Amino acid sequence: MPPPHPETWLRVTPEGLHCLPGGFTVDPVRPVERAVVTHGHADHARPGHRAVLATPETLAIMRARMGEGRAGESQQPIRPGEEVTHNGVRIRLAPAGHVLGSAQVCLEWKGSRVVVSGDYKRARDPTCAPFEPVPCDVFVTEATFGLPIFRHPPADGEVAKLLRSVALFPERTHVVGCYALGKCQRLIALLREAGWDRPIHLHGALMGLCRLYEELGVRLGDLRPATVAEKAALRGAIVLAPPSAVADRWARRLAEPVVAVASGWMRVRQRARLRGVELPLVISDHADWAELNRTVDEVGAPEVWVTHGRDDALIHAMAGRGIRGRALHLIGLGDDEEDAAPGGGGDAGEHAAAAEGATA
Ligand SMILES: [Zn+2]
Fold it and tell me: In which residue ranges is the amino acid composition biased (Low complexity) (predicted)?
């Protein structure tokens, strides 16, 4: 008997992508009996499930963000490469290169294999294991930056830009907006690689996850709280803060702040301008257009399902290469963290991008 088509055993339900024979849902947006969670961002990892299977790092991140009780009544850690079988469905996790602990969920049932990639990127990240392409029959991908204008430059070049500005304005405080899980720690690690060995100051909202990364073996160097009261001491310093704090009074109380934001959306110049960002840094933890297309080709799946983001352009491009694309329109993904287009909804961003054309 030929292997069953993935459409027959993997369905879109209001909870998310549900595996019928396995009885579990990947990244469910509502509380379920059994969840498999790709990574700790709040739009993928939600509270209130009974059983949660994920990497040990993702489970630790969930406990830190939600509290012990809400991060799943029972937690089952599996490491990349380990395999568990649930109701005849083989489950394996493979690194996704997105944030610490992020994993693709590889499912196999009766000889039919689906890989649900969650969020991923292909660019180097010193704080997590690199994405590993897994051949499959159906590849399930995001498309947050699924338009040809989205091309993320090498992150070390963006970090060099920040350090040049710090050298140029030694009296000013550089405050960089970045998301608490993943982006913040990657930025710190890249600064350390670039030779910045002075303390890095953190807004209170970023401290907890940095400490957790360190407990999980990611070294971040000398981190100190950014106390606005001691603004003189922060002259010439680099301060990291959540994007929301960068936009408000908190940042303006620093010494002549240079406002930077690290996000893939900084590619859209108009968006940076609207938010008063003086120094946009295009650093993303999501695949850009070229990475999405390269990944789809590498996994060799004849069929690709797109969970969220700019699915139409990607599906059109894949069709030209003989790959069948299908938009899943999963609800509830891309509402949080970097996916959430800062300063406006996704559509506004697309229009801004279209109006501007490809930015430099
Ligand atoms: Zn994510």
Answer: 351-360
Q: How far apart are CA 289 and CA 153, in angstroms?
A: 12
CA of 336 to the centre of ligand 1 (A): 8
For the CA atoms of the chain, what is the radius of gyration?
21
Phi, psi of 60 (to 5 degrees): -65, -40
Cα(60) to ligand 1 centroid in Å equals 16
Rounded Cα distance, 258 and 268, in Å:
19
Higher pLDDT pick, 61 / 358: 61
CA of 39 to the centre of ligand 1 (A): 7
End-to-end CA distance of the chain: 53
pLDDT tens track for 330-354? 887 775 555 444 433 333 333 333 3
Q: Which domains does the chain have, with CATH numbers?
A: 6-149+285-356 (3.60.15.10), 155-281 (3.40.50.12650)
User: What is the 330 CA–ligand 1 centroid distance (Å)?
Assistant: 14
- Are the C-beta atoms of 21 and 10 separated by less than 8 Å? no
The residues whose Cβ lies within 5 A of ligand 1, an ion, are 41, 119
Q: Kindly give the distance from the C-alpha atom of residue 243 to the centroid of ligand 1, in angstroms, as a whole number.
A: 16
The alpha carbon of 169 and the centre of ligand 1 are apart by a number of angstroms equal to 34
* 357 has pLDDT over 80: no
CA 143 – ligand 1 centroid, Å: 12
Alpha-carbon gap, residue 234 to 237, rounded angstroms: 5
